[in-house]
Amino acid sequence: MTDQRTERRGASAARDAVLVDPIDLAGLTAGDEPPVVLDVRWSLGRDDGHEQYLAGHLPGAVYVDLDTELAAMPSPAEGRHPLPAVADLEVAARRWGVREDRAVVVYDDAGATSAARAWWLLRWAGLTDVRLLDGGLAAWTAAGLPVEAGPVTAEAGDVVLTTGGMPTVSADEAAAWQGTLLDARALPRYLGEVEPVDPRAGHIPGAVSAPTAGNLGPDGTFLPDDALRERFRGLGVEPGAPVAVYCGSGVTAAHEVAALASVGVPAALYPGSWSQWSNDPARPVATGR
């Protein structure tokens, strides 16, 4: 029998390595070796992610604090969400219950735009079986699946993390990038019309506007493979050519990297992103298209 989910979404091996749907995740969590499930609710300008988690989350899910556990201390020199030291990330991952022999699934309530930071960091730190819950909490509840309230304390994990599992670029490398450089921020920020948090408005010269929201359908799930391929082709992404992505501080850019990975396109992340670039007066800034 044809898998209706595969037929509906144009699923592929690449997609299945990045995304999992609610029904499949429910089956996995009921199995003998359930994945570690992480709740990464966060959004720019809000600090109530933990309160939202406590009010209702996937059964057994552990809350992850993006600002303190998925980033080092912010600074003008490194940006608003610098990569954490791998030793610090390992301590946090063990608190979440991450183990060498278990898969990890991460989710949020914003189309995976914050959960993708955990997905990317754990992949960067050497884990390979890490996926995003496609559609997040909304898709889970829409499927009629249960949630629970209150905190979850996981049994300590034993994971050992390294670095280098995902490619990165520095500010200098972004400046000299010879492939497609995608800017995952909203279009008005790229154009330089608004800048709510960083010191200068605009974008890195040569970058192409590719707002992360364009990776998602109206229901908050990732677009089908064919639609994602068409989108990225229209943005200048060519098969086999180098691709790098940045955003405001390396959070939503991870979502763009995940979307590209789901259609088999590897992409590097610029961790410092605009928050680092715009704090350096020696770096040029472009506005408009």
TrEMBL record:
What Pfam family does this protein match (any one)? Rhodanese
Establish whether keyword Transferase is in the entry.
yes
Q: Which InterPro entries match?
A: Rhodanese-like_dom, Rhodanese-like_dom_sf, Thiosulphate_STrfase_CS, TST/MPST-like
Q: Which molecular-function annotation in GO is an example for this chain? A: thiosulfate-cyanide sulfurtransferase activity
Which branch of life, at top level? Answer: Bacteria
List the CDD domains hit by this protein, alphabetically: TST_Repeat_1, TST_Repeat_2
- Every copy of the Rhodanese domain together lies at 31-149, 180-286
Ordered alphabetically, the record's keywords are:
Repeat, Transferase
UniProt keyword Repeat, yes or no: yes
- What is the protein name stated in its UniProt record? Rhodanese domain protein
